[in-house]
Amino acid sequence: MIYSDKPDPDGVGDFITEQSEEADNHVFCRSSSDYQEHNDRFKFKLKDRSFSRQYAHLYSERLMTMRPKLSKAAQDKWGLEFPIRKLHELVHGEKCIVIGTLFKHMELRPSILKEVSEEHNLMPQPIRSKYTEENDILILEDELQRIFLIGDIKASTSVTGPVIAVFGKEPENDAGKFYVEEYCFQHLPNQLPRPIIENDRYIAFISGIEIGGKQEKLFQLQLFIDLVTGQLGDEGQQKATSQIVRVIVAGNSLSQSTQDKDSLNKAKYLTKKTAAGSVEAIKSLDDVLVQLASCVDVDIMAGEFDPSNHTLPQQQLHRCMFPQANSYQTLHNVTNPYDFSVSGVRILGSSGQPIDDIYRYSDIDNRLDMLEKTLEWGHVAPTAPDTLGCYPFYKEDPFIISECPHVYFAANQKDFDSRIHKGADGQEVLLLTVPKFCETSTCVLVNLRNLECQPITFDANFSTDMSADSSPEQDK
Amino acid sequence: MSNTLVTDTYKQTKRVSRSSSKSADTKTCADSAPSTSESKFERDIELLKSFDLTLEYGPCTGISRLERWSRAEKHGLNPPQSVYNLLQLHADDDNYKQNLWKDYDL
């Protein structure tokens, strides 16, 4: 626990009347940590961007890169006696292993053709929270062909995108379908062992601040800033706070309402004088960040509603948006997804869009289960580019998990949840969902020494009764 | 009554395209000097087109042939070395560099 269970009761609630001599001498230094960024595969230069390419390259790259890994996993699981066949080499009735990309055919999936049919006065598709139904079919695609999958594989818990190895046979009487007996994904990649850290070092994750929206919790946000900058709490608590080495602001720092989509459709002469909603919000965010950046390393990621590109990987928020905060070297604008290591602990995560997309297109309800599945599948965003916007890569698929992280997080989720996932080779990954601050006023602290995580909720209770004291509380 | 016909107002001159008849002759005899470079060019292009259409190396649209070749090599698919040599030789010529669908908006 970062803060002690029994804070000194004498200090709370009283004003400091006497300056004790000891208090002046207590200057707590923040612990330092090594930082390394592994984000290069997510970044691209403006001049190199070409959106005229087709997405077939991305799928081809994904399949070609993961095929050897899957062959190895398949042979480890089912032995060398069964051949690995491509779809055009299938022999009826022969048990074999096929490796390909999974595709889930969903009737209810929003389709551009159905949108176009609106012109013919047909009903447009309603927006639903989940687009899956019972009749969804799974199809396996390799480089040249595709085949229906039936048997021991559930369509409801699968999504389009991951590369899978299936074991089974094509029945003689039912050609065109592959009867699956078992299936597997790539082995969890190797994990560098975590270095032994003597002291506690914490990373604070906060997401979904959503400034500019109706739900913005500016007071609680200020409490968070005061806590991290060491202005809250008594000496014991300030000393504990000095162990926070980094703050990750994981997306959606601006609210959806600042996106102001209506003004896009209006004529220019109507919207000339109105300022964009995001301008004021970014100024407030800059004020927030300058306070944090003045004393701790801050990494700010873009989220779904932030002024960055819509497709994944989202590029860094531009430096010019934070004029005050950028004067500090401690502010880092980073990509979404974000891959980095602090003191040897490798951390990988996103602002939540891949997990939200998996929620829409599968039957899994628990967000942490979805996160665990993406780790099993070995891909940060399997539904990209099918239902999640993605840049048309052709040289490599940067979302493939090729090195196992120690901490794997998804931000902007509904609740805080965490679990340790143990891999077959002794890997330990902390799976973490960071809740939205605008809804829960909760941030998460992760201890790098032992991968324990702890939520901290900031609450304020201003009662209308004038006689009662207003006291901000800090929950553990 | 004159003996002139209406059609006389339009003078018809029969243009015998001598060049076409000549080239028809040259095409019938194999391997005469001006057309070897042409047919070599065509053979090269045929080789490159078949490289494009080999689906094992992945999709061919939207990227240059050299990029596709490097990608195939990176994944150990053993693309033919002759294709690589051709591409290095004519690195500036768009007919060699771009895939066969380059004129279409793919």
Automatic annotation (TrEMBL), chain A:
Per UniProt, residues of the DNA polymerase delta subunit OB-fold domain are 54-183
Q: Where is the DNA polymerase alpha/delta/epsilon subunit B domain?
A: 203-417
Q: Which residues form the signal peptide?
A: none
Q: Name one GO biological process term.
A: DNA strand elongation involved in DNA replication
List UniProt keywords, sorted A-Z: DNA replication, Nucleus
GO molecular-function term, one example from the UniProt record: DNA binding
Q: Give any Gene Ontology cellular component.
A: delta DNA polymerase complex
Q: Which CDD domains match?
A: MPP_PolD2_C (cd07387)
Origin superkingdom: Eukaryota
- Location within or outside the cell: Nucleus
Q: Which PANTHER family does this UniProt record tie to the protein? A: DNA POLYMERASE DELTA SUBUNIT 2
State the similarity comment: Belongs to the DNA polymerase delta/II small subunit family.
Q: What is the name attached to this protein's record?
A: DNA polymerase delta subunit 2
Starting at the broadest rank, the lineage of the source organism is: Eukaryota, Metazoa, Spiralia, Lophotrochozoa, Mollusca
Automatic annotation (TrEMBL), chain B:
Q: Name one GO molecular function term.
A: DNA-directed DNA polymerase activity
Mind listing the GO biological process terms from this record?
Answer: DNA synthesis involved in DNA repair; DNA-templated DNA replication
Coiled-coil region(s)? none
Q: Name one Pfam family in it.
A: DNA_pol_delta_4
From what superkingdom does this record's organism come?
Answer: Eukaryota
Instruction: Give the residue ranges for region: Disordered.
Output: 1-40
Residue ranges under compositional bias (Polar residues)?
1-10
Q: One cellular component GO annotation, for this chain's record?
A: delta DNA polymerase complex
> PANTHER family, per this entry?
DNA POLYMERASE DELTA SUBUNIT 4 (PTHR14303:SF0)
Name listed for the protein in its UniProt record: DNA polymerase delta subunit 4
